[in-house]
Amino acid sequence: MTRDEQWLLEEKYAGHETEEYETDKKRLASGEPLGYTIGWQPFLGLKIHLDSHPLIPRVETEWWTERLLDMLGFVNPTSDVGFTKPNILDLCAGSGAIGCAALARLPDAHVYFGEIDLAHEATILKNIRDNNLDESRAEVRIGDLFEPFAGMQFDLIATNPPYIPAGRELPASVTGHEPSIALFAGDDGLAIIRRIAIDLHNHISPGGQAWIECDSAHAAAACALFTDHGLVADIRTDQYGQPRVIRVEKRVGSMR
Question: Which secondary structure element, helix H or strand E, spans residue 16, and what is its range?
């Protein structure tokens, strides 16, 4: 029995080798990711359902999301970030894992979820409800990037957008099962991040920040997109020491 089969047996079937378990073993053998076969993925202590087959949250995203939440000062009181009741946007939300973690960790935050695929709305709401999070502090809006948030600014924007270059080969378990719209972003992988950079200044509160996951090989180019639009940006590494996140600040008094 493989490790994935053992995890499937314990988590989905409570150790009972049923006919349904044997069917699911075949799904795993065909290359289907374990998260889809089980139906959920752990993320910062939450159970993130994957009913609509959004992008499966990665451990790298989980790692930087935890760093981000620590930075805000609600988990780490020594932080100098001064928002006491922040408006947060989980952009390109997919399953809503990042936003749900913010709802769980930050009891005074209001969290918006922006997602282009209507099919994921029910999954996001399920993840809010089934994790016993405060739905009154959450709102899901469907549309293309910032389109559903015209005229709105946020103290924090967190996003794991599509950023894989179109020509890159990925494992068949990824390309054969996970949504290509959540993976690929043009020849250089920067098509979506480029669009985010153009409009980001209009949607960050003065003193606010955005954290944008990116492709390690194109992190410097991604960072330059934001500095070219008058924002302060730097590159953060993941738990493996690889460039993974662009942290962007909108300085108080900035006019661009």
Answer: none
CA distance 35 to 94: 14
Q: How far apart are CA 123 and CA 95, in angstroms?
A: 6
CA distance 173 to 206: 42
Question: Please, how many CA atoms are within 13 Å of residue 207, restricted to the half-sphere of its CB?
Answer: 9
Q: pTM, whole model, 2 decimals?
A: 0.92
State the architecture of 51-249 in CATH terms: 3-Layer(aba) Sandwich (3.40)
Q: Consecutive sets of 10 residues in the chain, 256 residues long: mean pLDDT of each?
A: 90 91 92 95 97 97 94 48 80 98 94 98 98 98 98 96 94 92 95 97 93 97 95 95 95 61
- The amino acid that residue 176 corresponds to is G
Extents of the domains making up the chain: 51-249
